[in-house]
Queue: 2 jobs
Job 1
Amino acid sequence: MKTICLTIFTLIATTLIPQRPACAEKPNVLFLIADDLNTALSGFGHKQCKTPNLDRLAQRGVKFENMHCQYPVCGASRASIMSGLYPYSNLTLGNEGTLRGSMPNVVTLSQTFRNNGYYAGRVSKIYHMRIPSEIIAGTAESDDPFSWDEAINVKALEQTAPGELTNWSPKDRGSQTFTGVVASDGDSEHADGMAADRAIEILDQVKDDPFFLAVGFVRPHVPLVAPKKYFDQYNRNAMETPVVPENDLDDVPGIIRDYKRNSTTYGVTPELHQGLLQAYYASVSYMDAQVGRVLDALEEKGLAENTIVVFTSDHGYLLGHHHKFQKQHLFEEATRVPFIISVPWLNDQHGRGTTKITELVDLYPTLAELAELTAPDTLQGTSLKPLLVDTESPTWTKEQAFTISRSGGESIRTANWRFTQWGFGEKGLELYDLKNDPDEFTNQAKNPEHASVVKMLLAQLIAKRDAAGFKQNRTAIVGKPGKGKPKK
Ligand SMILES: [Ca+2]
């Protein structure tokens, strides 16, 4: 029966209106998510970082080149992905608390699959997990037990692993310090290799039943631990640091100007900066290799043809862009994430990319539709399926991606503009003309020539944030911790 189905499936998959054959088994889902990974993927046009396995996945799927997170910090972004709700609705507005704590009756993405007879499993970091302390302890304190039949934590040495330890910032910033290890042992001695090993074991155990397997990779979150062979792929002295005008931050609102700024917070010298980039890219390539091992296992076990594979990151990451580092910013490098979906039977657009505006909150309704499951009618995203069938689909009408951050920061990203306000509109505005200034160097918010654009985008931002739950939950949102003056 399986052979006949696969034959019919192959025939149908080559027609113009691809669909799964009625006799096919329920499709599986393999959800892969990296941590603090920006779009430094060779397949997304990055000139130095090498990600051959993710590039291979992109060739077997569709690449979303304008995908934005809803909150550029681990806990809030992941809660948004798993709930299918904007942070203003699920009230997980940072790394504090849990999704279930805010919404006791939420039906999460994997829970919807569970409720429909699927096995749902988690390996390593899916909901918020403090890195490296929870990897060292082997815990997942913010996990949601309702989401899984089985949850596996990995336990690794992180920065105390054997090898050459370096710190690329002279300042100690606790868990966010730019520490890394050129590790002297192998892939499976570290967190992401362990996660791949456990994921491959689970695939073997559950291959005969429909599954939703979520696998979290913790690199390239610091500490940047990777076996030496991945560091050896990059010549430290050839690493290209971002080119940023000296005065770039002069026109940024004061409330956010010095936040995570190199000169005030990190003290990364040009030489350390190159070392940091080498370590970040080495960690990305190490993570990429573990993705490759899981994808290979999927093929070897005969599961590839009936498994939807998703790869993304929880948010982007600044690596010296705008003279700043890390996350919680509302610049492009922090909001934009790599995103690939491979749906074997929707193969007409495989290898293509789409620049349509999309949001991570769109993932939940997408997977529900692809698996033909009924999702909660409260979901706030839109199924991406039209873009999997046609990357230029005229039926895709989303015009703004909405991202919030601390200090009352709210940003919309449209095809041509980024518009951001701080302090819920009381602490300054930013406007970037992405067609002429894609690096967001010149804040045009006070330029009289763009007054009508500011007015238009402000109206769009207010409408978008109210639809996202701000109006309804205003008191709870404004009173949440992390909304005060940002720490430097
Ligand atoms: Ca600027």
Job 2
Amino acid sequence: MDHVIGYDLARGLHIIAVIAWIAGLLMLPRFYAYITVSQPGGELETAMLKAARSLRMIILTPSLIVAWAFGIFLFGTYLTGDWTRPPGDTLAAVPHWFWLKFLLILGLSGYHGYLSAEGRRIAKGERRRSEKFWRLMGEIPFVVAIAAVLLATLEP
Ligand code: HEM
């Protein structure tokens, strides 16, 4: 892989994007927790609503896209080589641990979508969840990140 972007550069950029993505996912529910306990229309609520929106637009959406883009590029390196192989053999070249990581990242992407949808509801004034709920939700990305990183590095 010695083209415009090599494998190791793609791996580095993938990890950088993943750091930003996970950091954002850890912060966003915390902002929602603050909004939930803040005075309606007050200074804290206004500031946190703005911060949550900026976090989604400036950090979360771009880092999701970049993490997926480089992840798919890296995934492509499992498949390239001999295109004359039957499709079954090509898929068999994908390491088994990757499919578990794939489930985790699909889940994490769904979790991201859920947080975005809830953010739009919160911006409209809906307060359907407790502060405690949002604090607990904020732990999820950390647990998923531990599992995803160890799968990628230990390659069990
Ligand atoms: C967004 C979708 C993602 C896709 C499609 C994807 C796919 C991949 C692929 C194919 C590799 C190359 C693995 C290898 O060395 O054989 C990789 C590397 C890596 N991924 Fe992801 N990944 C994604 C998200 C994540 C997330 C969320 C994390 C952590 C929280 C993560 C952590 C890593 C790490 C640490 C490596 C480097 C492993 C190494 O080279 O030793 N990835 N990813």
